[in-house]
Design a protein that fits this description.
GO terms for molecular function: peroxiredoxin activity. Pfam families: CMD. 77% of the residues lie in helices and 0% in strands. The chain is an all-alpha fold. It has a single domain, classed as AhpD-like (Up-down Bundle). The protein is rod-shaped and about 65 Å long.
Length: 88
């Protein structure tokens, strides 16, 4: 694998890792190697795609561990406490 490809991979990885110093470093290295802006943009977008996939997977995983509160259920509990029931 050539150095240009390695730097493009590192740019995408820096995006996915949320590492601003890494992105700055690898962006400068890629430019020094003559990598064009379109290739750098593609690497950045690929990093964002991986990032979104990981975020969606983590959201789903965390909701399986502890489902989010249901506002309707909370309102229903409050009404029951006030001697009025919406849930029967």
């Amino acid at each position: 694998m050539d150095e240009k490809i390695k730097e493009l991979i590192a740019i995408g990885a820096a995006i996915g890792a949320h590492c601003q110093p890494c992105l700055t470093y690898h962006l400068e290295k890629a430019r020094e190697l003559g990598v064009d802006d379109e290739s750098i943009r593609a690497a950045i977008e690929t990093g964002h795609q991986v990032e979104r996939g990981a975020m969606n997977a983590m959201k789903k995983f965390s909701e399986e561990i502890l489902p989010p509160k249901n506002c309707y259920e909370d309102r229903c509990k409050s009404m029951k406490q006030m001697a009025s029931s919406c849930c029967g």
